[in-house]
Design brief:
By secondary structure, this protein is α/β, with parallel strands linked by helices. The protein has helices at about 5-25, 50-65, 85-90, 125-130, 135-145, 185-195, 205-210, 225-230, 230-235, 255-260, 265-300, 310-330, 330-355, 360-365; strands at about 35-40, 70-75, 95-100, 150-155, 165, 180, 195-200, 215-220, 235-240, 250-255, 305. The longest helix has about 35 residues, at about 265-300.
């Protein structure tokens, strides 16, 4: 061994000993700081929609380990439901869970994410437009124009919402005239155009108002929410199918500065939690809504009616009048509408040509109508 080799050998042996010692010693994980986000939903605690907000938070929390924790409070815990956007923008809340249509008062174009027939797009197609057809960039542009410094994620294609709960079912559009009716978003304009006296109440206030006669009829969203909120206790007629909110979705909001302070891997966890929540919502909604629909019919003795086609056509006629007026008043409105129309023309043709009529198969086995 040369003199030059000896120090090198001693160095290698010393390094090996240190490595062996490190392997035999117990590993001590460095303490990680937990970032806590306080969220509020726009839903009452008993509503299944608040459960969906908690489902999203749990997915983030489970994937982030101890590094990020989202706590979700129900509507009104910090601010009223319709003030969620401002509260998140100001940092009063770190984030929230609701729907874009609730921000309608800030810019009428925001209600196009959910309100109205969306040129025949179903709710999943509206989300496809948002993420792949330019909707996301338009939403960010609108928020910037109204000085809302937030990060928005949309998810959860909601099934078509009913026309609503009525003390007495209606059979023609003339019966909407003078009716005190609850809805939100651009549906306010649609039903006002049809002659109704519209009151845009948040979810938790609808049933008490219906019970006290402050409104004559109301829509909210789905069988599970309607049952939990107590609609069967104050009305016995529900009319299914409508174009007023046939393509809505949830929105998860973050205060932008709080969101931007997160490391990239936590931002990615949020992104993938949104996608996972969208799928999970779709599956859970089918399971829960279908069970609660049966319960409403059998246990609560609710009479369900299909909304007559004449009323659906009147909604489309009204929608055309409303959007024509809004498009002249608001450049953003026309910009969003044109973007949706271009996407719907392509995607709707594809869906109409490719998708089979599933009702034909259901009728064959359960509806007494052999195909």
């Amino acid at each position: 061994m040369t003199q030059a080799q000896a120090p090198r050998r001693r160095s290698l042996l010393k390094g090996a000993a240190i490595a062996a010692g490190a392997m035999s010693a117990p590993m001590v994980a460095g303490a990680q700081q937990t970032t806590s986000f306080r969220f509020q939903s726009t839903w009452p605690a008993k509503d299944i929609f608040h459960e969906f907000a908690q489902d999203f938070a749990k997915k983030v929390n489970d994937m982030a380990g101890s590094r990020l924790k989202i706590e979700v409070l129900p509507a009104g815990a910090v601010v009223p439901a319709f003030q969620l956007l401002e509260a998140v923008n100001k940092g009063t809340l770190d984030g929230g869970h609701g729907v874009v249509a609730y921000h309608y008062g800030k810019n009428s174009a925001l209600a196009l994410w959910g309100s109205g027939p969306a040129f025949g797009m179903d709710p999943n197609m509206v989300l496809a437009w948002h993420y792949y057809g330019g909707g996301k960039a338009l939403l960010e542009e609108i928020y910037k124009s109204i000085n809302m410094d937030v990060v928005s994620y949309l998810y959860g294609p909601m099934p078509t919402q009913p026309l609503g709960w009525f003390k007495k079912p209606i059979s023609n559009i003339s019966q909407m005239k003078g009716l005190k009716y609850r809805t939100v978003g651009l549906a306010v304009d649609l039903f006002t155009d049809l002659g109704a006296a519209v009151n845009p109440l948040p979810g938790g206030e609808i049933v008490p108002a219906l019970d006290r006669g402050l409104i004559d009829a109301a829509e909210f969203n789905n069988a599970s929410s309607d049952k939990a909120l107590g609609f069967p206790d104050v009305a016995k007629n529900c009319m299914l199918q409508s174009f007023h909110q046939s393509g809505e979705q949830f929105e998860v909001l973050f205060n932008k500065s709080k969101y931007n302070a997160l490391p990239q891997d936590l931002k990615s966890i949020i992104d993938y939690a949104v996608q996972a929540s969208s799928a999970d919502f779709s599956w859970k909604a089918i399971d829960r809504n279908s069970k609660d629909y049966i319960d409403l019919k059998t246990k609560d003795k609710i009479a369900f009616y299909k909304t007559p086609d004449s009323i659906l056509k009147a909604q489309l006629d009204s929608w055309d009048r409303v959007v024509a007026k809004k498009s002249t008043e608001n450049p953003f409105f026309k910009k969003v509408l044109d973007s949706q129309k271009a996407f719907a023309q392509r995607a709707g043709q594809w869906q109409g040509d490719y998708m089979v009529d599933f009702k034909m198969a259901w009728n064959r086995y359960f509806g007494g109508k052999k195909a």
